[in-house]
Amino acid sequence: MSDLVTFGETMLRLSPPGQERIERATELEFRAAGAESNVAVNAGRLGVEATWLSKLPESPLGRKVTATVESQGADADVVWSEEGRQGTYYLEQASKPRPTNVVYDRANAAVTTATADELPTERIERADCFYTSGITPALSDTLEGTTADLLELAQDAGTTTVFDVNYRSKLWTPAEARPVLESLFPAIDVLVTAERDARAVLGLEGDAERIARDLADEWGFETVVVTRGAAGALALHAGDVTEQPAIEADTYDAVGTGDAFVGGFLTRRLQGDGVPAALEYAAAVASLKRTIPGDTALVTPDEVEAVLEKTDDGIAR
Q: Where would I find the Carbohydrate kinase PfkB domain in this sequence (predicted)?
């Protein structure tokens, strides 16, 4: 039995080395990346039994994805399809004032046709925790229904449901996203949202604490986590608020930082820690991720503990 089960699309990430422009690149780094598999891998490396579910094309590209996920720390249990393709995205890293750019090539991916009936849902029913994100229902009408079905199935089985809003403007508009997301909220126990998404997509106002309390009051979430980038994160649980500053890091690759945070948070909650300790651990995992290329936090528990134990002079004791 897995402690944590996730569901969603994993793409192949193709990126020029350094900050080279895509249009003049002569080589591309080749990695697997997706919010839900990232969370599974991150938690798996930190001591949680984690499984990622999805649907992939029966092809070398699909097998590349599963091989990567499994080599990095999570189990992969996928439906293999003879139809649909393997989604990809191109990442062009940049520094200010030029923004990092993402170009998606994911239309008609095999995962967009995945239904609850064909997935190994018994894994979700036996798990302690089920996680997915707002990226998944944005990908197709079918996945909108599948996301709802899986969350309800998990909740009926007594599995804790965790959902990250994870809004992507290249997939849908706030006006399209809000009613879909809110239709899912009754089946969610733990909600994670960036403060900017809560404002732009969910129409909430006030500071992070006000946002968390408004969400909990309206939808009955057990826990609400509001991430604030460089300002850290805030969590509301059982009426109590915990604030956690971000841990400074020299950033090499920021992509996947949010997934590292969620993976770290869920790891410690599944291991029995309270919300304050889990939030601190999540911040440490996220800071380490920023130093690592790729979308996943390929770190060890000892490395995370070393970050938490550092003194003000930056020397691990």
A: 1-297
Residue 95, pLDDT score? 87
pLDDT at 315: 41
Q: What are 44's two structure tokens?
A: 């798996």
Query: Phi first, then psi: what are they for 235, rounded to 5°?
Result: -130, 140
Whether 107 is in a domain gets the answer: no
Verify whether residue 164 is a known catalytic residue.
Answer: no
Note down the domain range covering 227: 4-10+36-84+112-304
Query: Which portions of the chain are predicted below pLDDT 50?
Result: 311-317
- For the segment 164-207, what is each residue's pLDDT rounded down to a tens digit? 999 999 999 999 999 999 999 999 999 999 999 999 999 999 99
Closest by CA position to 7, among listed 67, 50, 49, 57: 50
Whole-number pLDDT of residue 2: 77
Upper half-sphere CA count for residue 131 (Cβ side, 13 Å): 32
Which conformational region is residue 158 in: left (phi greater than 0), alpha (psi within -120 to 50 degrees), or beta?
Answer: left
Residues 6+ away with beta carbon under 8 Å from 262: 39, 42, 131, 162, 164, 192, 282
**Maximum CA extent, the chain:** 56
Task: Give the global pTM.
Answer: 0.95
CA–CA distances in Å: residue 226 to residues 132, 193, 245, 247: 16, 5, 12, 16
Q: Which of 164, 189, 259, 295 is catalytic?
A: 259
First-to-final CA distance of the chain: 37
Distance from C-alpha of 10 to C-alpha of 68, rounded to nearest angstrom: 10
Tell me whether residue 220 is in a domain: yes
Would 101 be classed as within a structural domain?
no
Q: What is the CATH number of the domain that holds 231?
A: 3.40.1190.20
pLDDT tens string 246-270: 999 998 999 999 999 999 999 999 9
pLDDT of residue 310: 81
Task: Provide the number of structural domains found in the chain.
Answer: 1
Residues 6+ apart with CB under 8 A from 36: 6, 7, 8, 9, 10, 52, 54, 131, 132, 133, 135, 136
